[in-house]
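Why predict the complex rather than its parts? Because the way molecules touch one another can change local conformation, and only a joint prediction can capture that. The input here totals 1336 residues.
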Amino acid sequence: MRPTLRSTAALAAAAALLGCPAEPGQRVSTGLGAKADQIAYDRGLTPDDVAAALKTYMPSGRIDDHIMFASSGHAGQVLVIGLPSMRLLRTIAVFTPEPWQGWGVGGKESMEVLAHGSAGGKHLTWGDTHHPSLSETNGVYDGEFLFIGDKANARVAVIDLRDFETKQIVKNPLATSDHGGAFVTPNTEWVVEGGQYAAPLGVGTYAPIEEYDQRYRGYVTFWKFDRKKGRIDVERSFGMELPPYWQDLADAGKGESDGLIFMNSFNVERATGGVESGNPPFEAGASQRDMDYLHIIDLKKAAEVVQRRGVKINGFTTIPLQASIEEGLLHFAPEPKSPHGVDVTPGGEYAIVSGKLDPHVTIYSTKKIREAIARGTSNKDPYGVPVLDFDAVVEAQVELGLGPLHTQFDDKGYAYTSLFLDTAVARWTLGGEYAKKHGQAPWSLVTKTPVQYNIGHLAAVEGDSASPGGGWLVAMNKWSIDRFFTTGPLLPQNFQLLDISEPGETMPVLYDMPIGVGEPHYAQIIRADKLKPWEVYPEVGWNPMTGQRDPNATEKGKERIVRRDDGVVEIWSTVVRSHFTPEHVKVRQGDRVIWHLTSLERARDATHGFCIGGYNINLSLEPGEYASIEFVADQPGVFQFYCTEFCSALHLEMVGYLLVEPTTDAGK
Amino acid sequence: MRPTLRSTAALAAAAALLGCPAEPGQRVSTGLGAKADQIAYDRGLTPDDVAAALKTYMPSGRIDDHIMFASSGHAGQVLVIGLPSMRLLRTIAVFTPEPWQGWGVGGKESMEVLAHGSAGGKHLTWGDTHHPSLSETNGVYDGEFLFIGDKANARVAVIDLRDFETKQIVKNPLATSDHGGAFVTPNTEWVVEGGQYAAPLGVGTYAPIEEYDQRYRGYVTFWKFDRKKGRIDVERSFGMELPPYWQDLADAGKGESDGLIFMNSFNVERATGGVESGNPPFEAGASQRDMDYLHIIDLKKAAEVVQRRGVKINGFTTIPLQASIEEGLLHFAPEPKSPHGVDVTPGGEYAIVSGKLDPHVTIYSTKKIREAIARGTSNKDPYGVPVLDFDAVVEAQVELGLGPLHTQFDDKGYAYTSLFLDTAVARWTLGGEYAKKHGQAPWSLVTKTPVQYNIGHLAAVEGDSASPGGGWLVAMNKWSIDRFFTTGPLLPQNFQLLDISEPGETMPVLYDMPIGVGEPHYAQIIRADKLKPWEVYPEVGWNPMTGQRDPNATEKGKERIVRRDDGVVEIWSTVVRSHFTPEHVKVRQGDRVIWHLTSLERARDATHGFCIGGYNINLSLEPGEYASIEFVADQPGVFQFYCTEFCSALHLEMVGYLLVEPTTDAGK
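Output of the joint prediction:
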């Protein structure tokens, strides 16, 4: 039974009777004590509940000091969450059109970004975002950019953290499936995207499943990031052909392991499924062996080799497997068993592998790996990839429990690993210099905190960087079951905030946050003061895609409508509280309409929407923003365009009429 | 400066020194007091902050006891929020495709609902949701259905609260613009949708703006709801032609006013804008007069008259304005000034109008209105609609402040009105029987609580029903400015939770909730125990759209692939942790694929996703759900289909291959 607070109020009153030197502050406090204790008593809160409430509560206007960027899984977006309050501050539209943000609903600029990410002529209107990755300088988050991958279509997006907008989506020409992405190298020269389900390389390439061993392949892609332009440079990016295992999560080396890339794999059994034909289903066929292969890739060397030995697959420069072997770009090390996460320690000394069907985490030594590679090995996988000796490269194994998935780090020499089947977070000590520095027994389990329920990834403050912050950890639980009100058969996920500020065995859950807008997989938490977002756009007429004032931006008084000879009507509008100029736009059915809109606002939060009823168009014009639309006025009639954002007391009057006059030669 | 809690810990310690009869409970409490006080002190929390934190905090597993359904504005969805924790439990996809819910991303069932709501052949992929309306029985929320309107396209959606899914979207044939919807009559026989921006009636009808007075019209539509079927019956629904004023919010009478519909209007000036031609912009032109017209509609009588005098406009039965006048279905009463909300008191005795450019709320008496209508009037508007005398129908006016928008009620005889320009919530007393019952001075302002910033609508517990619950009120603020971390130029809204449980002048803000997933306009709050959601679907193979087991639902062992002579490949699959059956699906390029999927799961929260990489398809299969997809396999190659929901430790192995063999006669 839970201890409650029945008697504190009485005690506080008794304390007042002490008649000790009474300052106003004391009387206020005593009164408060009684009042607060009464509320806690009435609500049946335990002492731990009260502590948790006071640690996470943010009074009105108090700004969260940590920001979490979480994927939203098959919602296709990014979630921005404040810590410690665990409040969803906003979403960032990425792969899925989102009308509130004016993303992909008629706006020319955003629709071009989405179109660029379309595959084989197919227009894609969603993605399966998995792993966000903040840009780094010397292995430390710098708060400038965010990258995220789309597992369902093998794409990577670039988000600019000045305006929290997606600027670029690149489609991988090699495959339709990825998982090991996005992960950046310590100075963000490269964005890593690793494959998942093997297939013939080159989107659109067919081969019978019976030829799996010969013609199906895995891959990894290294996207070259141009920080100055804030875009991925596809021409300078390249892929590597890998054996047809199923590559999984990856991490970039840093410090001692700088230049190396670590990537997990599973299904080295090369099971091809076919349960309908009496074969074992993938879940069984892909889980027969005790060991899979940790991929160790020399990216530094690969970036040179690709100049000599790169070939084009579906137009994309790729290093053939044989070349990688001959040039020593690729080594394997055995890893237990169907692993998920591989996570490099802050200093880069170790890579920690969580084998989801093995109760241990396995710690690989960078130093030992480099030595083993130098010594060479005669062991090879069926494709000729050299396989290092397990004992030669493993530093330690720590038994944590059932279903270890993913590991993060803090500032106290601890590692934290999610245990899916145990539904717990394990805290354990690192060895080597970490143990020495913090005077802890190396490589040992310290404590486990149960979470509700079945944790996937976890995220600690800058917990995958070279400078983990400690303090907070978020358990990203896949099942919530009974934690929240039942919202029908589809339930939210459950993000639980853990307080990891105290060393040792104390690691309480403070807060449950339902995630009912998607299914996040991974997240990163950054100190809020590292982010330097714009409050308004730098200039009136700012085009967020070009990063400058648009040539078609319009000044007050220069609004105009021009009918061109070629049946195009071009409109230059301004937008300001509380009217559009012009308010009447008359066209003929079949005209092509090009419409430029410029927000004249300079006040923070003075956002206007712009929609055209019936025409499936909606924009969000943030202060100073320029945007444009192009459409054919194929529907005759009278249509309102109005501000979809409640901007002022006269917001409902912020409207105009689009008059589309029917013509006999409609649609010309 | 804020008083903090420096001395409480010391006092609690001193209290312990009292050596009073010590029970374990007391010692725990004392220790707790000190610990909690220390946290509050360290974080600089005021006594009010601590009280607010303890009132709103929900320990893990504690279920919110009130549920708020909020629109999401131009995000096009519904938000489900728990009170008092102010946590977003989930969104409900309505007008905008949402892949996490499998809504409108390849799923046949949901795409048919969205297609049904398309306008004039235009496929719409968003909406501007404004006013959710819970189904009622005798004027009280019954928790069965939720209705919501789309202002941008004049549509209404029906949501079933057993599975929180949208079941129907109806497009209004009369117009592309609405605002006064959705509002239900006390037994949900009718769903009211009122117009907004006047236009020629009938989507696609054109008339020059110069003929505004003659050919532009307002309207209201009454959608007939068939509760047994859980659908709107379009055939039994009808519209009414109204003068070309801009109709705004509406409310259905109840109790004394049962059978009447009240609807606001603005721009009775009939301003047509044209600022670009030197005319006053709408914001000025539509705000010249001191009085607009409160529309009083006799729905009960209209439902009879329509049988005799209804005409078809764009195929939709509509009562012409002249018929409404002749049959006495429509009366006006003057109302100040550019009003927004009209809200009927719990007993139906009064309709309260908030004129956003007038500092008063104006209270109309139902009794006086009925008497005035019986007496008749010689005053008419320019279209011949009888105009009742202001003084004959107004009971009282209460001066509240600047920018009153919308009013709700509680269980203590209070009304609450949002003040946009004052950025405050006003509490004031009702008169008549309410004042007598609660012993309060009638029609008088009690207090105002400032909110941050610029409140639009507000929502109190069941605060627009016949049985308001009191306790909580949410201020739906349009601007947040400095309340949260700056997430770029696009900032969230701010929902603030107010504690209205104490009578009199105490009405504190307890919590700020950022809304960064849309721009909600209105919300309703229902007692959670009134909702009876399903935890899983009633039977395996349940089709959420037909409400029964689907004929194509598949049992374990009966999975199959059938190639028909007409180039159609039909697949019956089962879905269960952790595999799909079949795992191999081989088709020829150009084949039409019809794919039936049945979830065999019966465990709560055991949801599976189903996506096909590169094919822009994603489903969410909740426990027991049947869903289907149809597509042409126009892209050759090897594509993975996999579970997009992290369902088990072997979730990554829950995958299969779609093999599309290239053919020379592709796309046949």
